[in-house]
Design brief:
Elements lengths: L5 E10 L6 E5 L12 E6 L2 E13 L3 E6 L5 H5 L5 E5 L20 E4 L3 E10 L6 E6 L2 E6 L5 E5 L4 E4 L11
Parallel strand pairs: 7-12
Antiparallel strand pairs: 1-2, 1-6, 2-5, 3-4, 3-6, 4-5, 7-8, 8-9, 9-10, 11-12
Length: 174
């Protein structure tokens, strides 16, 4: 499985028992959607390796305790500790309305209520306190806070994000 065809679900953060169980910290708002999985892809080196789940239990909100097949002791668990966990993109629940996945909107055109087309979304910067749309307008990069009140509509069919930005934000870049 190629990493581009998958989404990041979380990370193995610690061992749970001497029997090889591990705890995955899930990177999701809806951890309950992932408590009945049969398998996941574990990132080892530059490869995604399928691991089959024997048993899992959701605990402490977004932590999933898992016992994998063929991971039977602490030494086995050590080999996968701190590894990223991935699932195929096809397993993502479909979103509608103004909700979207960051990877899904890359390449969307941005239509601002006042300025019209202001470019294409080339990325999402989620390393800041507030995630930002990275919009390329010619040679200029426009950063727009990803706030619900700015997002008017997400047109998935035509790949257009409709925004209503505050006075002065777009002008600051142009």
């Amino acid at each position: 499985m190629r990493k581009e065809d998958c989404f990041y679900l979380g990370k193995i953060v610690r061992k749970h028992s001497f029997k090889g169980e591990v705890v995955i910290k899930l990177d999701t708002d809806e951890p309950e959607l992932y408590q009945e999985m049969e398998s996941v892809f574990v990132e080892l080196g530059n490869n995604l390796i399928p691991f089959f789940i024997e048993e899992s239990l959701l605990q402490k909100g977004n932590q999933l305790r898992i016992r994998f097949e063929n991971i039977e002791n602490e030494a086995d668990a050590d080999t996968i500790l701190k590894a990223g966990i991935y699932l195929p993109l096809t397993m993502l629940p479909k979103l509608s309305g103004k909700k979207f996945y960051f990877h899904e909107i890359i390449g969307f055109q941005v239509e601002d209520e006042k300025h019209g087309n202001i470019g294409e979304i080339t990325g999402v910067n989620d390393t800041t306190a507030q995630p930002l749309f990275e919009v390329e307008y010619g040679a200029t990069q426009i950063l727009i806070p990803m706030l619900d009140e700015f997002i008017q509509k997400v047109d998935r069919e035509n790949k257009i994000m409709f925004l209503k930005t505050p006075e002065g934000l777009i002008e600051m870049y142009l």
